[in-house]
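Action item from last meeting closed. Structure (80 res):
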């Protein structure tokens, strides 16, 4: 529960997505179709459902972004 990231993988559909909770309270949804940002309406389900809303927002691990360092494919990166 301390992670600000939730990874969704559906092997049958060969699909994946990643949801990140930001300090502003918004969500970043990354998937093969692209990246989108915004607020998730309460009770709307989907990527902003309770599991991510209950977590602490991302602080980039104190500026050291551990997720980007350990990502085996290099698809997680920090950009300004």
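Sequence:
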């Amino acid at each position: 529960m301390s992670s600000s990231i939730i990874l969704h993988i559906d092997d049958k559909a060969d699909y994946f997505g990643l949801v990140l909770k930001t300090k502003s309270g918004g969500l970043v949804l990354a998937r093969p179709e692209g990246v989108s940002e915004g607020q998730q309406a309460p009770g709307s389900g989907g990527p902003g459902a309770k599991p991510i809303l209950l977590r602490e927002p991302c602080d980039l691990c104190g500026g050291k972004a551990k997720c980007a360092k350990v990502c085996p494919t290099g698809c997680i990166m920090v950009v300004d």
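Note appended to the action item: The radius of gyration is 13 Å.
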